[in-house]
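Data deposition worksheet. Section B asks for the primary sequence of the deposited chain exactly as it was used as input, without tags or linkers unless they were present during the calculation. Section C holds the resulting structure in token form. Section D is free text for depositor observations; keep each observation to a single sentence. Incomplete worksheets are returned to the depositor.
Section A, Depositor: J.P.
Section B:
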Amino acid sequence: MYARIVVDPGILGGKPIVKGTRISVEFLLELFASGATRDDVLKAYPHLTADDIGEALRYAAEALKYDQVIPLAGQRA
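Section C:
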């Protein structure tokens, strides 16, 4: 289903990564959460493609789709 995102127990403890790299989906999400744009990421990591980033974001969305929401401390449900 995801040709560009792979899981290998021998790389980053089995976290989902962009195929052929050690760049995890989690790391890409952290970059975007800190304010990086797609262009920023592509410039900083020229071996990535826009398709790699798009698939990583789709993978993350799918992984969260059925998660149960748990309020953070101090927040109401």
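Section D:
Residues 50-64 form the longest helix (15 residues).
The chain has one domain: 5-63.
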